Amino acid sequence: MGIYLPIAEMSVNVLVLLAMGAAVGFLSGMFGVGGGFLITPLLIFYNIPPAIAVATGANQVIASSFSGALAHFKRGTLDVKLGTVLLAGGIFGSTIGIYIFALLRSLGQLDLIISLTYVAFLGTVGGLMLVESVNAIRRSKGGVQPSLKRPGQHNWIHRLPLKMRFRTSKLFVSVIPVLGLGAGIGLLSSVMGVGGGFIMVPALIYLLKVPTNIVVGTSLFQIIFVAAYTTIVHAETNQTVDIVLAFILMVGGVAGAQYGAKAGQRLRGEQLRALLAMLVLAVAIRLAFDLFLPPPSIYSLAPGI
Amino acid sequence: MRRRLLATLALAVAAWASPAAAQGPVPLQPPPLPEGIQIGLSTDVIRITADFAGADLTIFGSLENPDPLINRQGRYDVVVVLEGPGRLVTVRRKSRVLGIWMNTQSESFVNVPESYSIATTRMPQDITDQNSYRQLALGTDFIHIQPAEIVDNPATLQEFRTALRERKEAVGLFNERIGGVQFLSSNLFRASLRLAPDVPVGTHKARAFLFRNGLFIKETSAQLAIVKSGFEQMLFRLSRNHSLFYGFCAVGLAIVTGWLGRIVFRRD
């Protein structure tokens, strides 16, 4: 069943896109991430131009994050204050990212940078998570109680000035790393078309020591706004948001997310993290292959200069 | 004897009535009218709707004042072309840098037709020679592709030109249909051209070329507009002219979908 995408100006199969959205939605519900890091590469594999894949990916992320954040908000596992500070940094980073995106596009290096950042970030985050979760699984098998949050043990981040109290997260920490983390993720969001959950979740857990149950909701909360901002700015400056494509992905995504969330509850935390890590690594390896293997054609066409 | 006379008379009458007699030195015969070609499109506008996945475009045409003898021998050939709007295109070439394939060289060309579909009565080399194709700029190999600025050497330019054609052919935007033009009667023909799924919108030019015995005789053209249909066109315009509003709509749609999805598919 074909459908014509008005912005991408191409005909695609609607069932393939629905399935893609549903599969990613399922995983995103299961792991509590937006799923942008999967949807954008999948769209690129499906021959959607990377510029459109990135901007549309950001749009799709809003729907799944909103759906997920609603659930966390009801359960009270969402720190609105922490999310807002992260968001302030996020908007700043995202604005810079949009300009970098437009610049790279005019230089003809956008596709390469998108792939490179994906390989670098997915590879690093996936690798670290895999090591950590495998260790955690081993420790729990050995009978030692795994604990991520070790009260009293502080790192350099906790010695920075301008401290702020976040009640829901039971956290008293400087706003500098929070804003910085937000900005970094905002930047990635606009260059990679991701919400940044796959970086935000581990960063909040390991760097800021936010309780694990609060992390996912808070991350989703800030992703909604950063992705919304990114979508609007991409629509305004690059005109690369394909609303028809985004909508098909969203419908598949929100349906899949609810089932995924249910499935995720049956798995243990460290098993879930190990699975997510392997998934992230798989995407990174697939993208890396494309970078290093000779392309089917060394030539490509682009409109304009 | 009488019978033979009648037969001769009948032959003479037939010869006088038939235009084939133009070859003969009959003094009453007017000089032959020049051959011509006409084409007609069944529609001036093709609308691309949501379910568009490429299409076949049929163009009808006729020969005017064909020479019956040459016609009988099948030595009239017709080439029909549908050329999309010209645009600026950049061709980029990847090469290996530190093991990674990245775009390193590029060349821009002006006025490159976004699409070029051609249909012929026979194999192109059987219709006429390379020279006439080149003079007429007819066929994907002979379209004029001018560089935006001449800085590189001709060999490099030629390489990128070839690459441009290859890429366009690979996605079906440049295509060729040998035997795509068929004669339905002695002077009526039908051309069937392929429109790729991502055929560009804009004004397309349909042209028909008539050849006799390998010689170019005449050309005719007609225009065809390819537009996005109502909804797709509306979205496209909105994204270009009111991009900020379009962005807000995209976000609004995502929020509503996320919220509805939660209500409909809720599992906890």
From TrEMBL, chain A:
Membrane topology: Multi-pass membrane protein
InterPro entries linked: TM_pro_TauE-like, TSUP/Inactive_protease-like
Name of one Pfam family that matches: TauE
Protein name: Probable membrane transporter protein
Keyword ATP-binding: no
Membrane-spanning residues: 12-45, 85-104, 110-131, 168-185, 191-208, 215-235, 241-260, 272-289
Record flagged with keyword Lipoprotein: no
GO cellular component: plasma membrane
Family: Belongs to the 4-toluene sulfonate uptake permease (TSUP) (TC 2.A.102) family.
Keywords tagged on the record: Cell membrane, Membrane, Transmembrane, Transmembrane helix
Location of the protein in the cell: Cell membrane; Membrane
TrEMBL record, chain B:
Signal peptide, first to last residue: 1-22
Recorded superkingdom: Bacteria
Keyword check for Ubl conjugation: no
Transmembrane segments: 244-265
Keyword set, alphabetical order: Membrane, Signal, Transmembrane, Transmembrane helix
Matches recorded under InterPro entries: CHP02186-rel_TM
Statement: the UniProt record of this protein carries the keyword Transmembrane: yes
Pfam families: Alph_Pro_TM
Alphabetized NCBIfam families for the sequence: alph_Pro_TM
Identification of the protein by name: TIGR02186 family protein
Naturally occurring in which organism (per UniProt): Kumtagia ephedrae
